[in-house]
Amino acid sequence: MKMNWGIDETSTASSIGELDELIDRLDVRASSSGVPIMVEILHKNGRLLAVGLGREESVVSFFEREMRPSYTSTVDPERDGTITFEYAGEPSEFWLGMAIPIAAAREAIRQFARDGDRPTNILWDKDWT
To answer: What per-residue string of b and e applies to 67-79 under the rule 16 or more CB within 10 Å gives b?
Structure first.
């Protein structure tokens, strides 16, 4: 699986273990720098999972082919405020109602790595785009 984050930063992982190790390193780096990031994980089937790292909560987005349709994690649509992650070098705000525990996001990454389908361990809201 190919991974992208920041501006032109990439890596590949050939197993779920390698993916876990890289996610661990990126999470620690984002947390210590104070700049939470979104990491894109591209499955060989062409689908993409974007995951926020560097915070105790994450936002996860799932994209079918060619970035549509897309889905975003959801927990509590009534939760007020925003959470920010750097996405492709730019700050991107997400509603706090989309934020899920980082442990759930990590499990979603593992599920996605196994089969490239939308992970089933979190609730999804289909984006309007």
So the answer is: eeebbbbbbeeee
Q: Is 113 within 8 Å of 1 (Cβ atoms)?
A: yes
31-58 per-position pLDDT tens digit:
999 999 999 999 999 999 999 999 999 9
Structural domain containing residue 35: 2-126
Number of domains within the chain? 1
d(CA 54, CA 31): 4
Residues 22, 34: Cα–Cα separation, whole Å: 18
36: preceding bond cis by omega (within 30 degrees): no
Cβ distance 16 to 113 under 8 Å? yes
Supply the pTM of this predicted model.
Answer: 0.92
